[in-house]
Write a structure and sequence with these properties.
Low-confidence stretches: none
Strand content: 15-25%
CATH architecture of the largest domain: 2-Layer Sandwich
Mean pLDDT: 88
CATH class of the largest domain: Alpha Beta
Number of domains: 3
Structural class: alpha+beta
Distance between the termini: 44 Å
Bound molecules: adenosine-5'-diphosphate, magnesium ion
Shape: elongated
CATH topology of the largest domain: Heat Shock Protein 90
């Protein structure tokens, strides 16, 4: 190979986009390593094969290649195009197919460049949630202020009444209900204000593996009568990360608690913690940051697609006595750690909450 060709080859091999080229008859002539990673097929399996075979059943992609082969101009699509790998779920992609011209003006084939949009979609979803939360937060803060003062007045009056009535009055029962209920409402408002208030993180070194193990023991004990099976899958090589320990504990406690509340007798909850280092859409152009990914999976009733849109909204709950503030709080804690959360769920099969936090060492 000429030095110049070597450079081209190296660039294509190292590109984090799938690059696939065909000749004018539609046979694959180039299949770079990223294309192999996206499709789960090796270069050897693909070279020489016809693109119609490779993308069988993937109508959008077939149509784009077909058009470029016949019309000889570039076509792009990034709306609802999915690549179906040999195993695993479809990947949302953006794709550009361009003609390849030889030294004459004859078209010699096409080249397609494919980009995996999963992370972008995840970030979009996380942003949507975060936006909604901050809007509701402003509203809630205003409302909380308006309600807290009169509430204080009611409590004060009820306490005076209680004193007036004296210890043996049968009416004491009513005043104590009043005071208790006022305090409950006050508690909810406090929680809501907490959610809408920016709070500086008090960062220290957090051992996530240890934290998850401890939380698991607590929840196992709390739900002993239902005999829940907890499965832990921790990567022991994960060092302590920099984060707010109290908040991260609250975050994972909320998620594990929700899972435990979702499962039935003998339900199964798996908790895993891993380092994933290939995600770098968060800071385009910067060096890739490794992420700590914690997944909490349960085999409970699952969450429908419509419901999924709502679960992060403050006060959305389907539980008797639920506050509906758990996931909103989680969202806020994750946001303040510059991470994001994703829900995967199939009704009747179960739910996975996946939390990704940027991996930052204490020393950083
Ligand atoms: N693991 C889960 N499985 C099924 N549904 C869930 C799960 N986690 C959360 N949910 C749904 O999201 C709602 C909101 O959760 P959350 O904000 O923690 O509030 P709460 O637990 O007080 O209801 C729950 O009421 C439930 O409907
Ligand atoms: Mg909850």
């Amino acid at each position: 190979m000429q030095p110049e060709q070597q450079i081209y080859a190296r660039v294509i091999d190292n590109l984090d986009r799938a690059v696939i080229a065909t000749d004018q008859e539609g046979h694959i002539v180039l299949f770079n390593p990223t294309a192999q990673a996206y499709t789960g097929l090796s270069e050897k399996q693909c070279l020489g094969r016809h693109y119609e075979q490779l993308f069988a059943g993937q109508a959008e992609i077939l149509a784009l290649i077909q058009q470029t082969l016949s019309a000889g101009r570039s076509i792009s699509d990034d709306e609802d195009v999915f690549l179906h790998p040999s195993a695993g779920p479809p990947i949302p992609i953006s794709i550009t197919v361009s003609p390849i011209f030889g030294s004459g003006s004859d078209q010699e084939g096409v080249v397609m460049i494919i980009r995996d949009l999963s992370r972008t979609k995840e970030l979009e979803e996380a942003l949507r949630h975060a936006d909604r939360l901050s809007m509701l937060g402003t509203l809630a803060a205003g409302l909380a202020h308006e309600v807290k003062n009169p509430l204080g007045g009611i409590r004060g009056a009820a306490q005076l009444l209680e004193m007036e009535l004296g210890d043996n009055s049968p009416l004491q029962e009513y005043t104590s209900v009043m005071i208790k209920e006022v305090e409950r409402v006050d508690g909810i408002i406090e929680e809501l204000m907490d959610l809408s208030r920016p709070r500086p993180l008090s960062k220290n070194e957090v051992d996530l593996n240890q934290m998850l193990g401890d939380l698991l023991l607590l929840q196992q004990e709390a739900h002993r009568e239902r005999n829940i099976c907890f499965v832990l899958d921790l990567d022991p090589s994960i060092p302590p990360i920099s984060g707010d320990e109290a908040l991260l504990t609250r975050l994972f406690l909320n998620l594990i608690k929700n899972a435990a509340e979702a499962v039935k007798q003998n339900g199964v909850i798996s908790i895993s913690c891993k380092i994933v280092s290939d995600y770098h859409l968060h800071n385009p152009g910067k060096r890739p940051v490794p992420w700590i990914v914690v997944e909490i999976t349960d085999d409970g009733p699952g969450i429908s697609k419509e419901e999924k849109e709502r679960i992060f909204t403050p006060f959305y709950t389907t539980k008797v006595g639920g506050s509906g503030l758990g996931l909103a709080t989680c969202q806020k804690i994750i946001g303040s750690h510059n991470g994001f959360i994703r829900v995967k769920s199939k009704p009747n099969e179960g739910t996975t909450f996946r939390v990704s936090l940027p991996f930052i060492r204490e020393s950083a």
